[in-house]
Design brief:
Blueprint lengths: L1 H7 L8 E5 L10 E2 L17 H7 L6 E5 L7 E10 L8 E3 L14 E9 L5 E9 L10 E6 L2 E9 L22 E3 L5 E3 L3 H17 L57 H8 L4 H5 L1
Antiparallel strand pairs: 1-3, 2-3, 4-6, 5-6, 7-9, 8-9, 10-11
Length: 288
């Protein structure tokens, strides 16, 4: 019930794609066919096949207009529709639908439909609905009349869009602060004045002057001797080890034999000694 109520509401999303199918049951995914006329609820076939053609061909040839609001060229929407003759060239910027999307047959018989696409971010309006009329030659309220399309009257509905490149409205006030005194209420209800921007700027200037007048109380330490890492360098480089004597620690000198007393004596073993000491037959593992 809720879905039916939502379907009855007008959909103001812009149409993004149009196509023609021969078999209405083979409408592409994401497209909706216009199968009935808006005024008479009759068949919305755009081919206008006569009974003589049906007898000669042996089958009924039909053409149905399908529209989509999700498929088509990304970020482009339909903003205008026009009807031209079969051999007439479309206006600049308009697209044709030359063949059916399901059977790859010629789409139109006498008059053909062309439409114009515009990038969604630049469109100020878009076509949101298309209807076909079988008897009436006047567009219903809210629709624009396009013209006769092979015996049916084509109408479309537009809706305003908000392009991304619309300039923002100008402000009636400036953004530059003016030196003034603001008043805020205290907790007891009385007003107190805040210092103005000019006085705050003067206070910051005085603080900066005091910082610049500060001088160190002791002289800076002398730099260590310079060592250049390359004969071609033009700037002195420091490695962080300047001034540290490169001597061996006395605890690990060869003369101090007390550190070697805990080291066990290494005995030389032959291959036979190693086999006898580490040989293992794995008999218990094989018995399991």
């Amino acid at each position: 019930m809720i879905k039916q109520v939502f379907k009855s509401f007008p959909d103001n999303k812009p149409i993004s794609g149009l196509c023609i199918v021969e078999d209405i049951t083979k409408c592409p995914t994401g497209y909706n066919p216009i199968s009935k006329t808006h005024d008479q609820d009759s068949d919305a076939d755009l081919h206008m096949q006569s009974w003589k053609e049906s007898v000669f061909i042996g089958r009924k040839i039909s053409r149905y207009l399908c529209l989509s609001k999700t498929e088509g060229i990304s970020d482009y929407i339909v903003v205008n529709i026009n009807i031209i003759n079969e051999k007439e060239c479309p206006p600049d910027g308009y697209c044709l639908i030359p063949r059916t999307i399901d059977s790859d047959q010629k789409a139109w018989r006498k008059r053909q439909l062309c439409y114009k696409l515009t990038r969604k971010s630049q469109a100020t309006f878009a076509i949101t609905d298309i209807i076909l009329l079988s008897r009436s030659k006047k567009a219903p309220d809210g629709f624009n009349l396009v013209g006769d399309l092979n015996g049916l009257t084509l109408c479309y509905k537009t809706s305003p869009q908000t392009p991304d490149n619309v300039p923002l409205p100008s402000l009636n006030y400036g953004l530059t602060p003016t030196p003034s005194t603001e008043h805020i209420p205290k907790s007891n209800g009385s007003l107190s004045s805040l210092p103005s921007l000019e006085s705050s700027a003067n206070a910051l200037s005085h603080d900066y002057d005091r910082l610049m007048s500060l001088k160190p109380t002791r002289p800076a330490p002398k730099l260590p001797p310079t060592y250049s890492s390359s004969n071609y360098s033009t700037l002195n480089s420091y490695q962080g080890l300047e001034g540290i004597p490169f001597v061996l620690n006395q605890n690990i000198s060869m003369e101090n034999k007390s550190i070697f007393k805990d080291i066990p004596e290494i005995k030389i073993k032959t291959a036979e000694d190693l086999d006898l000491e580490y040989n293992y037959s794995f008999e218990q593992e094989r018995q399991v």
